[in-house]
């Protein structure tokens, strides 16, 4: 029996989530399944889970994040000048650093590698307080309850990233839940 080939794929994280990964506070991410399958069909879930575009247990992800670099004398990029926005504002003697979008970070300059521990499918509103904390978000007090909640912090971040795309919290979309650990 042959072992399946492990994949190494890119994944984009925002600056706050990169900081949470580096601090060891983010060990899960949820990503919308597109197109949305029928809710409740376990056979369909298993088929979709095997097709997760980020990979499955044992695969690795390299993180794309906002970055900058000075050009080399002969063109290209001078690797010694790579900086990452999550590390804070950077100034050189001439001006403020010009940041490049995360989508343009080449794999060879990625500083964070994640190993996927597990992948499953769930609806976004099924997130637990413990899982919301593992998403690396800050807790917030909801409008209804004054207690601090990681779920409320996660809901706010989810809305910011996904509502305009048609996958708001109220839609309760199916998502891939990806558990990971940082590879040192």
Secondary structure elements and pairings:
Blueprint: E1 8-12, H1 15-22, E2 28-32, H2 42-50, E3 60-64, E4 67-68, E5 83-84, E6 113-123, H3 129-134, E7 140-141, E8 148-149, H4 150-162, E9 174-183
Structure overview:
The protein is α+β, with helices and mostly antiparallel strands and 184 residues long. Helices cover 20% and strands 24% of the residues. It has a five-stranded mixed β-sheet. A two-stranded antiparallel sheet has the order 4-5. Strand 7 and strand 8 (148-149) form a beta hairpin. The mean pLDDT is 89.
Order of helices and strands, N to C? EHEHEEEEHEEHE
Helix content: 10-25%
Radius of gyration: 18 Å
Tell me the β content: 15-25%
Mean pLDDT: 89
Low-confidence segments, ≥5 residues, pLDDT <50?
A: none
How does the major sheet shape up?
Answer: 5 strands, mixed
- The dominant shape is globular
Span of the ends, CA to CA:
30 Å
- Count of DSSP helices? 4
Strands of the largest sheet, in order across it?
A: 1-3-6-9-2
Core attributes:
184 residues; 4 helices; 9 strands; two-stranded antiparallel sheet; 20% helix; single chain; five-stranded mixed beta sheet; alpha+beta
Summarize the structure.
The protein is of the alpha+beta class.
């Amino acid at each position: 029996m042959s072992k399946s080939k492990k994949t190494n794929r890119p994944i984009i994280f925002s600056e706050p989530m990169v900081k949470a990964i580096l601090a060891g506070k983010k060990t899960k991410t949820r990503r919308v399944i597109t197109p949305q399958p029928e809710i409740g069909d376990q056979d369909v879930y298993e088929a979709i889970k095997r097709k997760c575009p980020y990979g499955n247990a044992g695969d690795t992800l390299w993180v794309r994040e906002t970055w900058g670099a000075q050009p080399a004398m002969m063109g290209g990029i001078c690797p010694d000048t790579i900086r990452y926005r999550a590390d804070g504002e950077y100034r050189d003697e001439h001006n403020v650093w010009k940041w490049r979008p995360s989508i343009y970070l080449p794999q060879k300059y990625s500083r964070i590698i994640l190993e996927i521990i597990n992948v499953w499918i769930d609806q976004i509103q099924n997130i637990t307080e413990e899982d919301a904390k593992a998403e690396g978000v800050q807790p917030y007090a909801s409008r209804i309850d004054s207690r601090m909640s990681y779920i409320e912090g996660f809901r706010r971040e989810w809305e910011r990233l996904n509502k305009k795309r048609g996958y708001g919290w109220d839609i309760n979309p199916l998502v891939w839940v990806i558990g990971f650990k940082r590879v040192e």
